[in-house]
Amino acid sequence: MNRDNDKxxxxxxxxxxxxxxxxxxxMVLVARLYYLEVIEGEKYxxxxxxxxxxxxxxxPSRGLIYDRNxxxxxMNKQNFQALIIAEQTPDIAQTLEQFKKIVPLTDKEEKxxxxxxxxxxxxxxxxxxxxxxxxxxSSLQLHAPELPGIFIDEGLNRYYPMGxxxxxxxxxxxxxxxxxxxSDPMALVPGFKLGKSGIEKVFEKQLRGKNGNIKLEVNAFxxxxxEIERQAAEEGxxxxxxxxxxxxxxxxxxxxxxxxxxxxxxxxxxxxxxFVSVPSFDPNLFVGGISNRDWSALIQNERHPLTNKxxxxxxxxxxxxxxxxxxxxxxxxxxxxxTTVDCLGAMELGSHKxxxxxxxxxxxxxxxxxxxxxxxIFFYDIALKLGIEKIAEMARILGLGSDLGxxxxxxxxxxxxxxxxxxxxxxxxxxxxETVIAGIGQGYVLTTPLQLATMxxxxxxxxxxxxPKFQKLSLKEKAKIKKLPIHMKNIEIxxxxxxxxxxxxxxxxxxxxxxxxxxxxxxxxGTTQVRRIxxxxxxxxxxxxxNLPWKLRNHALFVGYAPHDQxxxxxxxxxxxxxxxxxxxxxxxxxxxxEALKLGI
Amino acid sequence: MYHxNFSRRLSLKEKFYRLNFAYxxxxxxxxxxxxxxxxxxxxxxxxxxxxxxxxxxxxxxxxMIVLAVMDVKIYLKYSYLAYFAVLLLLIGVEIFGHVxxxxxxxxxxxxFKLQPSExxxxxxxxxxxxxxxxxxxxxxxxxxxxxxxxxxALFPALLIILQPDLGTALMxxxxxVVIFFVVGVQIWKFLIVGSSVLALAPIAWHFLHDYQKNxxxxxxxxxxxxxxxxxxxxxxxxxxxxxxxxxxGFLNGTQSYLNFLPEKHTDFIFTMLCEExxxxxxxxxxxxxxxxxxxxxxxAYRITSYYGKLVVIGLNTNYFxxxxxxxxxxxxxxxxxxIPLPLISYGGTVMLxxxxxxxxxxxxxINHHVNLGRQSFND
Lengths: 601, 379
What we know:
The complex is a heterodimer. By secondary structure, chain A is α+β, with helices and mostly antiparallel strands.
């Protein structure tokens, strides 16, 4: 009996332990539940929403770009493209075969599609063909049952109706690269394109607009269950530019087969009226992805069609720089309109002999005559008297050696050398000979076509500090333009020189002169050596430019303005390896200015 | 020889009258919550789950009442027989499962899938209860006295491990351990066995299937493989945690109806319940289970017969294991072992076995005054 009692007692005692343990363990569960749901509840709520809600960004349509007359320069074109999702197609080859019956594909295109399918994950849409016509789209939709996994996607593509005429100026849009992605929240949106260069980049903020978004509830497989919230996208704002498409077209056409750049400015405001870099290319080729053939043709072209020569091309200004030197000398009081220098065809400095382009010499010339004939000796002489610092100072006042705040990619600042620069660059002293050749815009001096146009505009507008502008200036903005410390009297002297260059007998650009209702052009030619002429060649006779390969011929420059009496337009023309400023560059500038005057912009 | 003439037989009506209605109410409430949750899991629909579950519950409820009003002596009488019959069944499906049925370990009864391993949990308790009912404390405290039941418990557990159903096997072993503990096997024996098991654990690790190893490793660090096996645990935690105090509301559980929640109608149903009903709902389910379990131990206390006490303690502990392992698993406190939440998870097998357990427990309670066998006599 005792034993049975003990058995019962032990059972009772141990059962109590078990029951109590069960109770405690269940309480642990309650505590854990409390911890997860109450203490950490907020955290899991966020995670649950992250699971549940997928945000799709709506890309706003990009703002349009107009010229000053309201002509569309950049627009958005509806683009239909056929996409294929590999995992929704039982037999890719057969589906593509069916597709080809409706929309033909080249072997190359088909190969690319198959390659893309292989390289992408099976649920990713792969582009078969874009730029489909309405006709193609409707037949494809009609045959949809035979085309499993193929669907039509409608998007907007940038389109430049003027084609090659505005390629460099407008720039282009493209997908975001890794570097841009870090600073741009839009970067992660597939299909988003942003301005990569030119106006598209400078006005990116305005053109882009504000993206909208759709909040969607999605299930674990990513399938959309319902729409929770929608915020419409705000369209990009349009941009109206100061360029005139007619002048732009005429300017580009004026170059013919030549390579180079031209910039036309309104001298009173700095508004860019035309901005040309040739040869150009069709920016629409890039929109849907450029073909390999087109790309290598552009890349291998020795005339560099992709380079924006108007801002990226840094050229020796040559004799066009004489405008700067003359003005500097007049301002410094080293010369006046009557000071003459006798040109004997060469000048000796130490052991070195500096030649005038006219070996027989010009005889005695004042500053107007020196500009008209582009006499080198005159400018050697006054450059020596001025010194490089004074020349550099005037050059900078006129906008050379600066990027002018244009904001384009690869904008060159050019180069205005001085003693300090040489010290920093070469760790050596400035030589007087270097001042001499700087006096005719050779040596270290480098300028871009945009700078040259700006320089000329600042001179002929009476010495106002205009800068190149993309858009029309308001009167208030025009009133804010500062006067430069240059005397009107001296400007008139230089202008007289430039007038004679074109209009006087014996002027270097007299063949380019015109007279439209009394409106005439003034300007300055420039021809700059690309190669070094050796002493040996000098002795045996300099090889004529026409007989040299294109790459070694001289650059031809001309800066011009019109009308002479009341200057309105300034143009800078650089013709790469164009041989002669007077024979090649001046006629182009003349055509451009005539067109501007006729248009009366 | 086991007949007792000291207590008179109860009429059927009296037996009904003696049913513990509070206990039954808890069972019905839990099943009701289960069906409600399955309705939500089915996308506010009685199909595919809620209706089936309701039918099963009604059937099982009937079975429970039948088992409850049966003559208590029959259980004692057939305890051994039941054990061996189930053991044969277990061996049978083990063999046929290997040979012809594509690793299938159940017998299809249309409404239910009969898993012998589930039945074994009950018959094992009955077997051990009868065995220890007949043993004296002295016998229990000798090795010789416990070696037979130990082997009888280990053999089916081994068969179940081979199936492989680690979860069920472990539950069977735990229940066995608890019974051995309450009948008075010395603590030091547990310590010896326990420490040798720990020592052998690294070796056992080698015999685990890859998916079982994965489950353990993933349990230890769910972030190890967030899209693979850890996905379930992470998503379950999100579902559960995002419920907050009062839940997202009935039919509003985003994790579950957007299919982020795996196994939301079976093993992970508790997370769905907590997502929709919050801490309050989850806590209520735990509370109901706590009441059931405490009731069970109270029954055991007032039952006169040693057999009856042991049966109730064994079955009650077994039920507790289900509840604890399942909830601890979905709360991320135990590895995912594939144990459903009884009465709530969708599925017939476990419903059948726990409702049968409740029936037997109720029967023992109805007959709590009945003396069974000589151990209860004052001799």
